[in-house]
Inverse folding.
């Protein structure tokens, strides 16, 4: 345990600063920093993330020393403000909020108005001069504390909150609609009913001791670190489980003290487009939760934003000015203060900020600032703009863009012509850009189920809540009826890079009937809709999409990345089309061209099957002669598409059983073609089946037992390359032997390849350069890489298989336990997605070092799926690989990740 | 290339000595050594094994320098003897023989009488004064040279040698039966016919140039290094392919120069029993090949041996003295010389020698000495006797016994009572001891086929040849009609530790009809016979066998081994019976007790299936409660059998799919038991099936996804141990978590185990010691062993799975390519039998070092099948393991191997 576990912050005296994120969490560190730079921050203190670990290690309790530290800091706040927590006359009230080192918005719990009880509420009423506000705050506090600390919040989405039920009953009885219409007596009676409900559900009285309340609040925040949804969020965003959250205890300020109060959220630039425009939303006479919850329609902060919004929402200027004025118009002084503060923050942090503010009775308070979540397009635009503005340098700009986010830009967008022809059903807010087409569902669980069945869905909700997270993640797009640009749906969707149209006010959802009504049209679950997240338009049915391009800002970023990179990026492609796509995305060669996929098309599978089912070598050679021209033509196509760039061709790899017909019809056909009985065909197929095909007769084991296959493939490759040479097209073939486990296996295959190629050279009277290397995908190959490298001219790490064998996990079967392993925290990531640097990486590093010890200029790359995963790319750069190779659509991601790895290293 | 490639040897001047086996081969080194110690050796020279490598590397030719060295050495022989190779007046004649560093008897080629041609044969006739002998030698030379050098030997076993055909024709024409009855003219005409045959088959004249003959002979020996049978023999005996053979060119001496000449083979002690008795066989007026080929009935060397032989063969004393006198009786002077020489050799080499001698016209020549092949029983007896005689020390005695040979003594022997009751059909020579019962076959290929089908066979042949090697290897026993104690069948069988009865003269074999006639009885292929290799008896039908015991010499050897060992030897046993057997063989604990085998017996499989097919945790727990008392009782039995010794219990390991019923009947039964539909059962079973079960949901992945299974097993283990404690029996349980790939996986299982055990301790109010450790069988566990060892108290290497994953070989499927890989030399051994020290061993070593770096007293063992394989045991000793564990019947082998490893290390 450290000596200091609680950090004080106030304008006058602050312990922390922005560099202490790991200790104070993002929120706590930034609160401290804002105090340091003189912004108006309500004073308070931060309980560190270490205490979170201590809390869990200590069976959910605290050592006495920590309790004392909290009390000491509380006293400091009390002395500073001259108020005491829960004082019956002039009570100090505090908020208790979470704040981890990495932002997890909405995932953890918060308690506001803490310190109120039957006595201090009277003091608050007296001091504020607003009895209604005081009792409404007390009512809210009991409700929030009951839900969050005492666990009265219903577990299931559909079940009603017990407190909301009581409010609804009172409103029904009083025949009123809005909470604000409740009288002071109504509020007082609600408070009694709320406390009864607490007693009934928990068996205990509502705690009146302010200190008991405070510790309850702190416990609740720590406990919320391990709720299912927080854990899920961490998995999704690859946030470690053991970093813990800090707790911020801060003096309450009130945005709900009347018409001179308010609260809001602002972005220093447009989070959706990246434009250098101050944007944000606010509500008058409201607490922070009201803005993000989407229950009231929020107003824009700037007049420009307000006008835009009114146009999108078809709100008349008259209505806008009277009901939805911008902060700029409604409170010009407050707007001016806020504008200056946001500039100060962005310039200070050198990044787009997402900030929360509260206006209490004409005074502006900042409650939080953080780096703003944004779409990928805006991430790129902001980074490039800031370079132009001289705020950051080029390397920083490259580091600013999360490689995985590029995925958003690599998905298809709507075809312009299709949009013109599309039927626009309605228009909502363009909350998160992109194009989505899918079948509508009304429930996050259904979205998950359908996604499991491979269906593409649009999740339609009145509004979303953190419980919908999983469903949002698998849906192609999100459509909500309520909520603004900073609503839960909007913020989360932007974070996910998921297309979202929010606040489409004209739609009506009937959850029971599972229908969506837009004007006259009624859509049922499963009907197709399309969302345009860039315009906010909702189209009827499916809408045609087009391929993305590397242009504009995206292209500029890629150029910048290449300027600072060391490694090459290649692609895994088996067809001329894929090769061309990848080349367009900047691939510098093919790192893995699988030859087996070529055998499945059209009639060629027949010849392949003849080869496999042949009874002897002569039969196989006969069938291989039919395959030779086909393979040669395939290679010509790929070599042509990749002219002047290296193409790594992997020789036949999968077990032969994968090629044979498993259906009666296919078997009959083969019997006829080969002129033998179907029983013979069946016997041969049966003899090919394996208990563990992954560990069976495949890879170079095929080439070493049936050398004639290797002979055919080597001939096809080199003849294709020579044919192109004649046409002036330069092919650079690199022949890759798969599944090597011993140096001898490689040598035998290499000799067959070189002998065959020499024969072709002699036949044609010409020569050309080529390489023969191997895939390192079997642990033993990595362990003996020095022996293998004596003959192999290059290594390519097949980390898919290497991961399978190093972990002993079959990718086909791991679904039975991998999700449970990740859920239980036994694994941080799916090792097939994120390279396991500790185990598999150890073999990769060892093989690289051993390989280069035997052949100093050994060319080394990776062609497993990890080649397009940023943290794995960084690892590959670290061990000194020459290139990574990934699927065509991940090439830009890998290029950016490679550049970042190189920049970080220096 | 080295400077010296040819080594001269003669009584006067010798280049080599016995320590140069790797260079000169065993035969060459011993010839040199015998010259050094003054024995009568015909002079000659040895072409080194390096030249064999050069020959193959050089496209089967020699550099000029080597040719010159051979010529120089030949000249030296010529000068020493005053004769010239092929001289028409007094020709020098030589033999050309193979000789690798490791003895491969009968596997390679030999050419005798080299240097003869139409002219020199006249010289030989003149000098020897024996024209018949000279022309017979010439005839033999053409035949042998034709077969061996010119490749005229028929490839298939059944096909007739072209030369033999010619001889048979002549004999038929002349109406004679024996070769010795041929007249000089007959021989001369045979020579003409032989040369015609050579011309006809090869298209070339028989070479008359002695130098051409010599190089042909040398080539032939080198070529015979890579015949199929030589390669097969090397695989069988794990002899590397790259050591090559030397070639010995030696002056001919003749045992076929009449009644004062002879040739024979002798052992300094009895090779079958180990008794300190000089034994051996010889033939008068014969060349060496005649003795081992088994075509003439050889005579005994000693009188004592001769009397014994006559008794066994029912030969009357009168007949024995006149037709089969011993050398001791027939040539007392020669016998005395030989007796003295054999003593000299044994004392000098300090080991039992197998020597070849030739008597040429009353002079004794030694042609070869080598360490004699022997049965395991004699190996042990000789080693122990030599310790008693003061010839060797105890450590040397321990090193003298090949651990794998102990297997012979660990096979069942005939029950004494069963022997008394057995019907003795006939009696042959007790050529190689042991008990064999099997179905008779008459052809080595059939023996192989039948063995593949799992049948036990007795191979019955008139006599055996090197071509029968594979069949002999798979047969349970060998019965021959011809051939003595030094015949091919006898020597090879003893080398293999295979039961063999040779020279059973009264049996008649009809290969065509596939029948064996013994007296009145006619046996067909597939009929059952039993062989007693210790007495030479042949019994009708099957004969009952009994378990072996560690008594007498065997027990003494084991005690000696334990005196010099460091590692413990445990056993892999799942039942009290196996535990008892292993304990009897000296097991010092159980290294692997697989719990899953226990679930298959009787009704318990039903409860196991209920557990697996249960639809939720509650259902599983209910079924596990039924299994608990069963498991507990099982453990009580095993702990009791292994009282006071540690028992490593592995928790459930195999995929659950292995336990469920795959037949309709079993599925119906389960549906009835569980009260659900058969469709539900089928669905569940289907959902359990896996593409690669080896890499699927098994091992600790079961315990981590269904913790209740681990809870039940931990409880059963500790309750069993506590129950025994009450009875005063000490159990030492070591609980082993299988298939760990990450430290967290271990930790989670360990916590479940410890929590469960603590609960039991609390319930019972008593405690006891136990360990929790893990199996290291996944490459990743080895790579991260330091992390794993933080919590694990012991490691046990599961080298079966570790080999599967390190090589990427499925044991179930590798049969498709492993044999081909071994045949092609891609693998030296089956890595599932002999631990791959380079690859898998690297992980074992790494894990041992990393594990001990985290926990210095980490107990480490091996429980894969390699734990009973001598070279692997030596490796385990080298890396510092605490114990090896193997199947009960391999425990003595492992004990001896462990002792040898420790002795060699020092």
């Amino acid at each position: 345990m450290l000596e200091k576990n609680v950090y004080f912050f106030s304008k006058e005296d602050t312990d922390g600063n922005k560099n202490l994120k790991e200790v104070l969490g993002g929120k706590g560190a930034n609160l401290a920093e804002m105090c340091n730079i003189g912004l108006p921050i309500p004073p308070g203190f931060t309980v560190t993330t270490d205490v979170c670990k201590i809390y869990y290690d200590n069976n959910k309790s605290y050592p006495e020393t920590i309790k004392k530290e909290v009390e000491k800091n509380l006293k400091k706040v009390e002395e500073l403000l001259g108020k005491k927590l829960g004082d019956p006359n002039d009570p100090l009230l505090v908020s208790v909020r979470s704040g981890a080192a990495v932002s997890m918005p909405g995932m953890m719990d918060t308690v506001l108005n803490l310190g109120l009880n039957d006595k201090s509420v009277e003091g608050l009423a007296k001091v504020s001069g607003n009895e209604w506000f005081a009792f409404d705050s007390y009512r809210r506090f009991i409700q929030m504390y009951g839900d969050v600390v005492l666990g009265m919040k219903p577990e299931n989405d559909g079940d009603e909150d017990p407190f909301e039920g009581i409010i609804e009953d009172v409103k029904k009885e009083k025949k009123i609609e809005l909470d604000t219409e409740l009288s002071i007596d109504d509020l007082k009676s609600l408070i009694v009913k709320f406390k009864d409900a607490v007693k009934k559900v928990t068996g205990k009285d509502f705690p009146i001791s302010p200190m008991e309340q405070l510790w309850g609040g702190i416990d609740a925040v720590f406990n919320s670190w391990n709720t299912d949804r927080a854990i899920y969020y961490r998995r999704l965003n690859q946030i470690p489980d053991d970093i813990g959250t800090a707790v911020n205890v801060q003096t309450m300020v009130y945005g709900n003290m009347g018409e001179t109060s308010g609260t809001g959220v602002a972005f220093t630039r447009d989070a959706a487009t990246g434009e250098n425009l101050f944007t944000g939303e606010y509500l008058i006479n409201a607490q922070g939760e009201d803005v993000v919850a989407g229950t009231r329609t929020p107003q824009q902060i700037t007049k420009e934003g307000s006008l835009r919004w009114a146009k999108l929402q078809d709100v008349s200027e008259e209505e806008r000015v009277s009901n939805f004025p911008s902060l700029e118009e409604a409170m010009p002084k407050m707007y001016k203060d806020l504008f200056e503060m946001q500039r100060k923050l962005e310039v200070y942090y050198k990044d787009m900020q997402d900030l929360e503010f509260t206006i209490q009775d004409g005074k502006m308070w900042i409650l939080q600032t953080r780096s703003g979540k944004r779409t990928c397009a805006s991430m790129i635009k902001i980074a490039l703009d800031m370079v132009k503005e001289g705020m950051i340098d080029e390397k920083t700009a490259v580091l600013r863009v999360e490689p995985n986010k590029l995925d958003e830009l690599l998905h298809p967008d709507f075809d312009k012509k299709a949009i013109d022809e599309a039927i626009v059903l309605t228009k909502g807010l363009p909350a998160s850009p992109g194009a989505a087409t899918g079948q509508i569902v009304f429930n996050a669980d259904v979205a998950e189920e359908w996604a499991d069945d491979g269906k593409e869905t649009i999740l339609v909700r009145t509004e979303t809540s953190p419980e919908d997270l999983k469903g949002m993640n698998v849906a192609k797009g999100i459509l909500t009826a309520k909520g603004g640009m900073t609503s839960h749906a909007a913020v989360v969707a932007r974070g996910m890079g998921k297309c979202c149209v929010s606040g489409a006010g004209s739609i009506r959802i009937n959850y029971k009937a599972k229908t969506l009504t837009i004007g006259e049209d009624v859509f049922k679950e499963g009907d197709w809709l399309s969302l345009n997240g860039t315009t906010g338009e909702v189209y009827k049915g499916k809408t045609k999409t087009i391929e993305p391009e590397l242009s504009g800002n995206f292209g500029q970023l890629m150029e910048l990345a290449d300027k600072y990179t060391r490694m090459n990026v290649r692609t895994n492609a088996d067809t001329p089309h894929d090769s061309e796509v990848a080349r367009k995305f900047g691939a510098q060669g093919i790192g893995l061209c699988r030859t087996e996929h070529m055998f499945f098309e059209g009639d060629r599978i027949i010849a392949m099957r003849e080869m496999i089912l042949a009874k002897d070598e002569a039969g196989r050679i006969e069938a291989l002669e039919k395959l030779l021209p086909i393979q040669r033509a395939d290679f010509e196509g790929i070599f042509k598409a990749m002219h002047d760039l290296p193409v790594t061709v992997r020789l036949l790899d999968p077990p032969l059983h994968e090629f044979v017909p498993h259906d009666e019809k296919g078997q009959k056909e083969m019997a006829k073609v080969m002129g033998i009985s179907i029983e013979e065909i069946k016997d041969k197929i049966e003899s090919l089946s394996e208990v563990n095909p992954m560990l069976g007769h495949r890879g170079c084991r095929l080439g070493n037992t049936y050398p004639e296959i290797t002979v055919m493939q080597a001939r096809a490759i080199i003849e294709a390359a020579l044919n192109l040479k004649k046409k002036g097209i330069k092919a650079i073939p690199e022949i890759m032997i798969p599944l090597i486990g011993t140096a001898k296996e490689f040598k035998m295959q290499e000799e067959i390849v070189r002998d065959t190629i020499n024969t072709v050279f002699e036949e044609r009277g010409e020569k050309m350069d080529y390489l023969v290397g191997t895939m390192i995908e079997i642990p033993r190959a990595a362990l003996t890489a020095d022996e293998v490298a004596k003959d192999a001219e290059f290594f390519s790490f097949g980390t898919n298989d290497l991961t399978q064998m190093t972990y002993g996990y079959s990718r086909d079967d791991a679904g039975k336990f991998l999700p449970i392993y990740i859920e239980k925290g036994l694994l941080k990531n799916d090792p097939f997605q994120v390279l396991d640097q500790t185990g598999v990486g150890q073999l990769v590093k060892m093989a690289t070092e051993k390989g280069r010890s035997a052949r100093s200029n050994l060319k080394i790359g990776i062609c497993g799926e990890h080649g397009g995963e940023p943290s794995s790319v960084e690892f590959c750069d670290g061990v000194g690989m020459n290139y990574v190779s990934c699927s065509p659509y991940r090439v830009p991601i890998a290029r950016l990740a490679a550049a970042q790895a190189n920049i970080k290293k220096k």
Q: What stands out?
A: Chain A has a mean pLDDT of 92.
